[in-house]
Amino acid sequence: MIPETLKKSLQARVASAITAREAAVDVMKELQAHYGWLTDEAVQEAAALLGLSPLQVEELATFYEMIYRRPVGKKVIHVCDSISCWCADCDKIIQYLKDKLGVGLGGTTADGMFTLLPCCCMGMCGDSPAMSVGGVPYGRLTPELVDEILEAERHKV
Amino acid sequence: MPKLIIDDIPVEVAPGTSVLEAARSVGITIPHFCYHPALAIAAACRLCAVKLLDGPVKGIQMSCALPAQDGMVVSTTDPEALKMRALVIEWLMLNHPHDCPVCDEGGECLLQDFTIAGGHSRRRYQGKKRTFQNQYLGEGIHHEMNRCIECYRCVRFYQDYAGGTDFGVMGSAGRVYFGRFQEGALESPFSGNLVDICPTGVFTDKTGRFRARYWDYQFAPSICQHCSVGCNTSPQNFQRETIKIVGRRNDQVNGWFICDRARFDKGYLNDPQRPREPRLDGATCGYDVAVDAAAKSIAEFVRNNGADKLALVGSTRLSLEGMIVLAQVAEAAGGAKVCYFDDAGLQQGSLAAAKLLHEENAAYVKDIEQAQWIALHALDLMEEGPMLALAVRKAFLAGAQIFLVAGDTLPACKALPFKYTSVETLDQVPFEGGGKGVIICGAGSKDPELLAEMASSGAKLVMLQPGPNGFAAALLTQQHAAGPLAELVAARQVQAVVCFEADVPQTLLSDLEVLANADWRRGAVEAKAPIFLPTTTWAESDGTAINYEGRAQRFERSRVAGLPLKGLDPKYYGSATEAVTLHPPRVHRKDVPGGAERDAWQVMAQLIERLGGEPVEPLTGKWRALKSLDPEGEGVRILEMGLGE
Amino acid sequence: MDLPLFRHNRPNRVVTFDEYREEGGFEGLKKAFSGMSPNDVQQAVLDSGLRGRGGAGFATGRKWSFVPRDLPGPRWLICNCDEMEPGTYKDRVLLEHNPYSLIEGMTLACYALGVRHAFIFIRKGYEKAAANLARGMEEAKKAGLLGEHILGSEHSIELDLHLSAGRYICGEETALINALEGKRPNPRSKPPFPAIKGLWQGPTVVNNVETLANVPAIVANGAAWFKGLALNPEGAGSKLFCVSGSVKNRACVELPIGTTLGDIIDGACGGMRDGKKFKACIPGGASTQFLKPEHWNLPMDYDTVAKAGSRLGSGGVIVFDEGHCLVEATLNLINFFARESCGWCTPCREGLPYVKEILTRIENGRGEEDDITILREHVKYLNYTFCALAPGAMAPLDGLLRDFEDEVRDHIVKKKCPLK
């Protein structure tokens, strides 16, 4: 169940859209922000808000890279593996992240803090290799910098 | 009219025709998966590649999405086009399982056909095949996602064509998945069409899986007998059992599709409990013995009580042939009464509708699809004529306004695949002089004055009949001034009945003597009749049905009558002199076990002969024109032939 | 020279509304609203020779001219800021430094096209750019430069942000329209083209951020001025080049159209990194062919790069040195495209993973002679897809087989990557 205030604001968002569907991505993102991931319950709530069936929401949810339909950690690490980051040896950084977090790609750390996901070009090519942690972009990564970032992110609310 | 050349054949087609359809018009089948005549163009599978050698467009093109234009020179056999098509098949086979022998679609699989046709036989790809989890989709359809070739036909049918919202496409790239949000029975009453529309074995008919191969089936063109729409079907039979029923194209009636009732509701055909033996006073007897007894009983009753105290009772389940001959039996019995309806209200409405409709005002399906407004009058469309809901949906999608008049409390309104406005009376439907409007109602139990009011609106009319052959029953009721049985009984005008596929209610039966009963199903009448004559169903007989718009359609015998071989009682295996074993028959029998059923009209004809009448032929006189009706054609509207007058 | 896009940029922050105005910002808008007809604005853009900066390079003025002006119902303008082409980050850099050129450019485009409501479609991850735009739009509204009755005229123009959730295919204009409508972002079939039937079935123009951001300067300074910015006679304007890979100074720079490849790398980027040797580069984002050392002095313009067998594309220059294995680089690119396929049409959905499997084997020393044949078949036949994603994916593979076939063969013969 979502709080009444969130529900109201989402209803307002849907009402202001040209068609209800136009607000679908916004609604999914807001519900994901609330639950941490887009739970089955959230899909059903989104459907009710948008006047769609849960399946119709699922059709959209499963298309987008940044909508999570499975549980994720408190913060999701998206590490770029596209060409510019490849040039900057992102493979090493990805391996370092895997080793450090003790998870494979797609895995969530035992403490539920981080989920590690590869992602497509983040538009940080000038600062490759790059990743984002909980939506915050970081570039020019080195193992040392990764250590610092994870430590800081772990304690940042 | 664009003129083009396809494989050296000059072709002229209507503007807007695709190259694929133009080729088809001269007998060239360009391989395709995503293309389906009933669905919007997707151009997704890329199999229908052809090469344009000259004209306004050049090079490799997808023929399904390319409108034919003047001066095009098309090659379907150019090496480049062949290579493209071979690659598409190779791409699809990267992940499709190589296990046709254990797939229920094997033998009727478009992918199988085009894989062979495309010459793909060697696997070059060294990667693994991707796999999916299947979903439970209900008791009708089995789901096997690994076989999917992502042509998107299913979702385009289910959502776009049929208006379902609980099945669709999820994921992207190679993870595209066609299914439901969560496991569960598909909600659309048209879900069964996924079986027909899937070009491979993702959706198969769970009610008949692994019973037989396509080439084992006995087929014949048939007409669904569940409601008065008269959808065209093709029952697939094997060893005296109707295994599956699939839709058969008729653009004037059902297009390509059928509803789930037409497809899945078939258990009664194969029911081992069906009464299959003629009986006399509770004991099995020979068919002729039973007919003789029936004739004798009729003659005796007439002698003792007068012919006018006897009624020959049919129903809307009878074929047109049965209905015609039923009246002749009454005549042969010395002027007995004839009834096609029990209920006075149903008869009145049915008759009024048949009288009101004429060639100009009786809506064609196209009229529904192209209407600007449609009024559904106190009608449970999903019950009385589900396939018309899809025609209404087409109009709705094209912008028509739909009104539901006095129908809010009807149960199936929630399931209607279109949005509508509820109003209380027909007067509240805003239309001017009819326009391109259609009124759809159920004719049975309707006040004839109300029906007449609808007819005077200038709108096209759909008046659904009570029962599959109600229109024919109305015509014959009119012709023979037949009365409803309930009224005749109440007025004590009838003391005894002979029933042919008639479901006389228990309340009437208590005041009646049943001399004989002919039917293919059990019921109260059968229990009361001393003489029982088993008849064939529509699946086992030839006949004619007239649908709600007065369209006569021929159905053909799709299999012989008799008990299905599967589950056959071992008593049929042996002969009188041999012991019963559990092995299939070693002894050749002349008779099909349980195969004594006869077509109702033929039983009637035999009765007429026994009663001293002339041998009869049902489709004579004014019905002669229907004798040559093509079972694979579109049927004929008898209103046009003047037969309805 | 005073190039139009980056001239307002501050080193480490976004330019303020006042700074932008002081430096001549919104002069184009004022000029247009005080005496130019919508047609004049469109003509200026047409005359300027501005070409689509998103990658395809189609003449912007011509694209606008396809929009029928006599149809009833609304027309739409969408700014495509779904910048997800690997190696491309120019729109982000532009918007993180200056959202106003885009806002002014969109307002001008709306004026020219008779659009009342326009959208900016922004990819996931560009929240900073989105925030700048949101603030900039508020400021412009307050100043009467956007919203109701712009500059006191009868023209009202509304701008809306649409924040996406991350998919490369949304950058394809018809997929973008579906995404904006809240449908699955599969591309639509063309025809009908968006200019006739696009967003909610209305006539729609979709332009890239950089394209629209050029419009104010064109209107303010005239088409001739813009044309004159280019170094080559056929060219027009400037281009944002965003360089990554083996250069000393990876940067997004604005340079005149016609600047040579060598000048971009040696001049703006300070040369190759660590004294490495230039082996090849991808000049315009992931879906373009390789350029080689012989192209060092190639003027970077749409037609010149096309003549050299590649595309100027988005201006995302990815530089490889002699230590880079181009089989692996191509594999990386194909992996991206395979992952980002929408799954609609067969060749893209199935063909790209096929190519990926083959390149993976070759890179890992398990390649076979037949593989090159199969790859070439894909290069040719993946052109017949529903949209341009797979043909784009084939561009680097085509380049690899054309220019570096020896390197591929070396992998197969030596049964290993020769660079490892």
From TrEMBL, chain A:
The keyword Oxidoreductase applies. Signal peptide: none annotated. InterPro entries: NuoE-like, NuoE_dom, NuoE_N, Thioredoxin-like_sf. Its cofactor is [2Fe-2S] cluster. Pfam families: 2Fe-2S_thioredx. It comes from the Bacteria. PANTHER family: NADH DEHYDROGENASE [UBIQUINONE] FLAVOPROTEIN 2, MITOCHONDRIAL, NADH DEHYDROGENASE UBIQUINONE FLAVOPROTEIN 2, MITOCHONDRIAL. It is an enzyme of class 1 (oxidoreductase). Binds 1 [2Fe-2S] cluster. The keyword Iron applies. [2Fe-2S] cluster binds at residues 80, 85, 121, 125. The lineage of its organism: Bacteria, Pseudomonadati, Thermodesulfobacteriota, Desulfuromonadia, Geobacterales. Keywords: 2Fe-2S, Iron, Iron-sulfur, Metal-binding, Oxidoreductase. It comes from Geomonas paludis. Its EC number is 1.6.5.11. This is NADH-quinone oxidoreductase subunit E. Gene3D superfamilies: Glutaredoxin, NADH-quinone oxidoreductase subunit E. SUPFAM superfamilies: Thioredoxin-like (SSF52833). NCBIfam families: PRK07539.1-2. Belongs to the complex I 24 kDa subunit family. GO terms for molecular function: 2 iron, 2 sulfur cluster binding; metal ion binding; NADH dehydrogenase activity. The gene is nuoE-2.
UniProtKB/TrEMBL annotation, chain B:
The keyword Cytoplasm does not apply. One of its GO terms (molecular function) is NADH dehydrogenase (ubiquinone) activity. Keywords: 2Fe-2S, 4Fe-4S, Iron, Iron-sulfur, Membrane, Metal-binding, NAD, Quinone, Translocase. Signal peptide: none annotated. It holds the Pfam family Fer2_4. It is found in: Membrane. Residues 217-273 form the 4Fe-4S Mo/W bis-MGD-type domain. Residues 1-80 form the 2Fe-2S ferredoxin-type domain. Its cofactor is [2Fe-2S] cluster; [4Fe-4S] cluster. It comes from the Bacteria. GO terms for biological process: ATP synthesis coupled electron transport. InterPro entries: 2Fe-2S_ferredoxin-like_sf (IPR036010), 2Fe-2S_ferredoxin-type (IPR001041), Mopterin_OxRdtase_4Fe-4S_dom (IPR006963), NADH_UbQ_OxRdtase_75kDa_su_CS (IPR000283), NADH_UbQ_OxRdtase_ferredoxin (IPR054351), NADH_UbQ_OxRdtase_Gsu (IPR010228), NADH_UbQ_OxRdtase_Gsu_4Fe4S-bd (IPR019574), Prok_molybdopt-oxidoreductase (IPR050123). PROSITE patterns: 2FE2S_FER_2, 4FE4S_HC3, 4FE4S_MOW_BIS_MGD, COMPLEX1_75K_1, COMPLEX1_75K_2, COMPLEX1_75K_3. One of its GO terms (cellular component) is membrane. It catalyses: a quinone + NADH + 5 H(+)(in) = a quinol + NAD(+) + 4 H(+)(out). Residues 80-119 form the 4Fe-4S His(Cys)3-ligated-type domain. Belongs to the complex I 75 kDa subunit family. This is NADH-quinone oxidoreductase. It comes from Geomonas paludis. The gene is nuoG-2.
From TrEMBL, chain C:
GO terms for molecular function: 4 iron, 4 sulfur cluster binding; FMN binding; metal ion binding; NADH dehydrogenase (ubiquinone) activity. The keyword Cell division does not apply. Pfam families: Complex1_51K (PF01512), NADH_4Fe-4S (PF10589), SLBB (PF10531). SUPFAM superfamilies: Nqo1 FMN-binding domain-like, Nqo1 middle domain-like, Nqo1C-terminal domain-like. The keyword Repeat does not apply. Keywords: 4Fe-4S, Iron, Iron-sulfur, Metal-binding. Residues 327-372 form the NADH-ubiquinone oxidoreductase 51kDa subunit iron-sulphur binding domain. InterPro entries: NADH-UbQ_OxRdtase_51kDa_CS, Nuo51_FMN-bd, Nuo51_FMN-bd_sf, Nuop51_4Fe4S-bd, Nuop51_4Fe4S-bd_sf, Soluble_ligand-bd. PROSITE patterns: COMPLEX1_51K_2. PANTHER family: NADH-QUINONE OXIDOREDUCTASE SUBUNIT F. Belongs to the complex I 51 kDa subunit family. This is NADH-quinone oxidoreductase subunit F. It comes from Geomonas paludis.
